[in-house]
Amino acid sequence: xxxVLKAGSLIEQPEITPxxxxxxxxxxxxxxxALHYDVTPLGLHYLLIHFDIPAVDVSTWRLNVGGLVxxxxxxxxxxxxxxxxxxxxVTLECAGNGRARLSPRPQSQPWLGEAVGNAEWTxxxxxxxxxxxxARDDATDVVFxxxxxxxxxxxxxxxxxxxxxxxxxxxxxLLAYAINGQPLPPQHGFPLRLIVPGxxxxxxxxxxxxxxxxxxxxxxxxxxxxxxxxxxxxxxxxPVTRILPRALMVPPGIPDFMTRxxxxxxGPCPIEGRAWSxxxxxxxxxxxxxxxxxxxxxxxxxxxxxxxxRRWTFAWTAEPGEHDLCVRATDDAGNAQPLEQNWNLEGVxxxxxxxxxxxxxxxxxxxxxxxxxxx
Length: 375
Ligand SMILES: Nc1nc2c(c(=O)[nH]1)N[C@H]1C(S)=C(S)[C@@H](COP(=O)(O)O)O[C@H]1N2
Ligand SMILES: [Mo]
Fold this sequence. Notes:
By secondary structure, the protein is mainly beta.
């Protein structure tokens, strides 16, 4: 436990550190305007790679299925592709999304709020493969191990995570070899990755090397130490599992290059975005143009997939002046988005509402410049 906290120190100053910048340029978020597409185009989906992207020779690569099974398997990619295939649209979001807005800021991948994407994943059912291997009765958890290796929390490790056997055997859990109809690119887990609809990103292990059935849980670093919601360093915390609801909007108008402040013409200004939750269906999306003091219902479109985000729209009219646009989602399990940050030591599960600053007024830039010159 102590190692985690040493590695994940907190910083008070708003400046980004070189180490955070290094992570930020390796791992990109989805440009927020890509919320326009129901299926996130390949290359715009967010990326999170803890260590290095492994180079895989698919002619020698095999997936090992072992541990507490009666028939251990070693399977080639061709064998996996010859099994029944299924394509699912699934919204993936990193558990650390929003972390960089916390104060003090936990040092890790500094996401602002756009570590999300909705892709069409093609693969084969995990449960059918485990059925072929015949799980022993005493197996309780399934461990998924990636080919990537590194050091985190001063511990050398493969990237690996586990799921309780009941979650792992759900019908929608896939071993995926394609994204948006294309073979998985190296950065998204070539040749094979796990897809667990509804769960935060860390669950979807990339570059799979082995699947192992175990009993009495799994205490690997990424499972037992990282990805816990805790506010005190001596707490064990609560494990991060399914995605909390979030709505995001496509910022309207045009941006200022550095600040991303938006400029729009006064008048009708249609707003669109997407909303998702891994804990229930999206039940409502509300929009505010006054920083969250008053809210109005947005119109919701039917979900294109039970595991993907849902489009929403709002017919906003921009009055001349400055506006603080916000949006918030609720799901049918009663989860909502807070206005304030949900501070915790790792900066996980933070689903505070998005805020977009908009200036409405023709040649608003000129108006602002003139105002700046006033004595
Ligand atoms: N093997 C391996 N799998 C991994 C990771 C990793 O570093 N190594 N990162 C995880 C995390 S934290 C996230 S958010 C998702 C990101 O998936 P993407 O890069 O395909 O969007 O992959 C998960 N699977
Ligand atoms: Mo993540």
